[in-house]
Design a protein that fits this description.
The complex is a heterodimer of chains A (about 270) and B (about 290). Chain A is mostly helical and about 270 residues long. Chain A is about 75% helix and about 0% strand. The two termini of chain B are about 35 Å apart. The chains are: A mainly alpha (about 270), B mainly alpha (about 290).
Chain lengths: ~270, ~290
């Protein structure tokens, strides 16, 4: 029992460290910058105010930024789910020439840091005239090596006899994909969806390179822009940060089980 | 199964996209590094290995390389130690609800965009109104430190932030690994009267080998490529006296601000080579050839 209490005490202390930045961010977001500067040692607002949030909404195209982030994250997630399951299925259940080589090529690209390909990617995006559009963030992400790899691993666990039985029943390859493979891939698809969405939603470097115009920005890039433009208005910066951190945090709290299982699944493969 | 048309119909578009946006950029990244390449110029000349030779005489490169290595090794070592310790504590809790509560709580920073959480931490570190200095002054009676404005403190500040932001992943992976260790090992040890510390070092740690090797590799690779918090916390100039400048940030600035894309590609290749070497050494060192 004593050991349980000791463990609990340490864990609670660490939890305070983990949660504190959130608490400080929220409390500061409800203070005016003038109040912060006049009594910097205080943590709690003297006069609670929404003025920081009002600044974010009225002085920046926050709604457009949110919509941009949504468009990019949802379309990439949907596309990655579709292409990964389909290509993973082909790699797992079909025989064709060059299969091993192609799969190794896929894996090899996962080892390369983004810094090497970002310059040519930027030049290509420019060349096909989608620089400074949301397409620049969507098109290069439609097919991902990690998604294909993950789905192939899960397809490998589906017995071939299931597919063969479907073939005997007269099902074509696309019907087998829809009727046999997809339903059995659901746990893997859940994890893949959560992580793809989060990764795209949080991405900063790619938008920084690929976007220029303010109203076309996605949220993380927009926050960097906003906090530069309003660098003296701490209350507003914390309000903007809170508004950007909120969606993912709520998603985590609602889908905790899927998150935890998802990490264990994708991490252990 | 065999179906030529289906395989072709699926792979053709996938391969075209993949080749255009992954394979081709990687190959051309290697090629551009051998050019004096500026996208604004119409002619760019081939200069062979000059960009790579330049690396050895470039003080900023050497400084950011040192910073990168310090950041990666210190952060990863701390991360692994702290996460192992915390996951052991969490696993020792008897109440399942409490275990998942702590796991979710520690994971919370992992889902926030790094730009947003580093913006919050820039506020926390502020010498005037920041929570950390306020705490130090009022509780510990230490005078305020300008964390992000002092060369000696920028990197520790970024390391502390990164630990906070990234612990959750490894805690969950370690916990999953610990749950996978058969309980008979612990029961046998308890019969011999082993204490908790011995159990950790003689059972948990060795039997966690495979998870450990994977987690260390992934953490190393991801930390080499971190970017956002350096731009936010060290600032656009790389921090005071370049103390917060790292390779990823130097590559970005060289490519997109100085527009010296050839040289930026050469630095990126250097980064890749360093990641490969470190990962290979780590994989060699932590080879596990047994199972249970």
């Amino acid at each position: 029992m004593g050991k349980q209490i000791a463990a609990l005490t340490i864990l609670i202390a660490v939890s305070v460290f983990v949660v504190m930045p959130y608490v400080w961010m929220l409390l500061t977001s409800f203070r005016t910058t003038r109040e912060i500067m006049q009594s910097p040692g205080r943590m709690f607002p003297i006069d609670w105010t929404w003025s920081g949030y009002v600044t974010v909404i009225t002085k920046s195209p926050f709604f457009s930024w949110f919509v941009n982030s949504m468009i990019v994250s949802i379309s990439v997630t949907a596309a990655v789910l579709f292409t990964s399951t389909l290509v993973g299925y082909v790699f797992s259940k079909f025989k064709f020439r060059g299969k091993t080589a192609l799969f190794w090529l896929l894996l090899a690209t996962m080892m390369v840091p983004y810094q090497i390909m970002m310059i040519p990617q930027f030049l290509i995006i420019n060349e096909i005239h989608i620089y400074d559009t949301l397409l620049a963030l969507i098109v290069p992400e439609l097919v991902t090596a990690f998604g294909i790899y993950l789905c192939r691993q899960f397809c490998d666990e589906i017995p071939d006899s299931l597919c063969e039985a479907a073939v005997i029943d007269g099902a074509g390859p696309f019907k087998i994909y829809g009727m046999v493979i997809l339903p059995l891939l659901r746990p893997c698809m859940g994890a893949l969806a959560i992580f793809t969405f989060l990764e795209v939603w949080n991405e900063y470097l790619k938008p920084l390179i690929m976007l220029n115009e303010v109203k076309r920005m996605t949220l993380p890039l927009a926050l960097a822009f906003f906090s530069d433009a309003h660098s003296r208005d701490i209350g507003a910066i914390m309000s903007a940060s809170a508004m950007i951190m909120l969606p993912a945090t709520v998603l985590l709290l609602v889908l905790q089980k899927q998150f935890i299982r998802g990490i264990a699944i994708t991490g252990m493969k | 199964m065999k179906s030529k048309w289906f395989v072709r119909a699926v792979l053709l578009p996938a391969v075209i996209l993949f080749a255009t946006f992954m394979v081709f950029p990687i190959v051309s990244g290697l090629v551009i590094a051998m050019f004096d390449y500026n996208p604004l110029r119409s002619e760019n000349s081939f200069i062979g290995l000059s960009n790579f030779i330049k690396l050895f005489h470039d003080a900023t490169f050497i400084k950011s390389l040192k910073n990168t290595l310090t950041f990666v090794f210190v952060t990863v070592a701390l991360n692994i130690t702290v996460c192992l310790f915390l996951s052991t504590l969490i696993s020792s809790l008897r109440w399942g609800r409490l275990r998942s509560l702590f796991r979710v709580l520690f994971f919370m920073p992992c889902v926030a965009p790094l730009v947003a959480s580093s913006t919050v931490w820039r506020g926390l570190y502020s010498p005037k109104y920041g929570l950390i200095n306020n705490f130090m002054e009022s509780v510990l009676h230490i005078p305020a430190i300008n964390w992000l404005g002092t060369p000696a403190f920028v990197m520790p500040a970024i390391i502390l932030f990164t630990l906070w932001a990234d612990m959750g992943y490894n805690i969950i992976l370690f916990s999953a690994g610990m749950d996978g260790i058969p309980s008979d090992f612990y029961e046998a040890a308890e019969m011999d009267g082993t204490n908790a510390i011995k159990k950790f070092f003689f059972i948990t740690l060795p039997l966690l080998g495979r998870t450990m090797s994977f987690v260390v590799a992934m953490t190393l690779i991801s930390h080499f490529q971190m970017f956002a918090q350096f731009q936010v916390l060290a600032g656009r100039t790389g921090g005071p006296n370049q103390a917060g400048n790292v390779l990823t940030y130097y590559i970005y600035k060289t490519a997109f601000q100085a527009k010296d894309m050839g040289y930026a590609s050469a630095i990126a290749i250097a980064l890749f080579v360093i990641i490969m070497i470190v990962t290979l050494i780590q994989q060699r060192a932590s080879r596990v050839d047994w199972g249970y």
